Write the structure tokens for this entry.
Amino acid sequence: MLTAALPQSSSRAPAYVTPDVMNRLRNAVVALQRIDDEDADVPVSLSAYVEAAVLAQLRRDEREYNNGAPFPQRRNKNLKTGPPVTK
């Protein structure tokens, strides 16, 4: 399970990923942390990397499926969690 903490709060959002994806994610973050370029726009932590990826996907989905607006507030009981499934 992958949990991403938001910098402004201590909330966490559980998200399940396969072990292969988690390994690739960790490898990418470690490799990006080694880039010694102050001008490089790379995440400095696993949480920063995950948050940037989630925000990019949210923006794409909001543009495509909700006319660019944020999706409406949902009820917690309607949020499905669990291992990755495609539908």
Q: What stands out?
A: The chain has a mean pLDDT of 81. The CA atoms of residues 31 and 87 lie 33 Å apart. Helices lie at 19-33, 46-65. The beta strands are 2-5, 12-15.
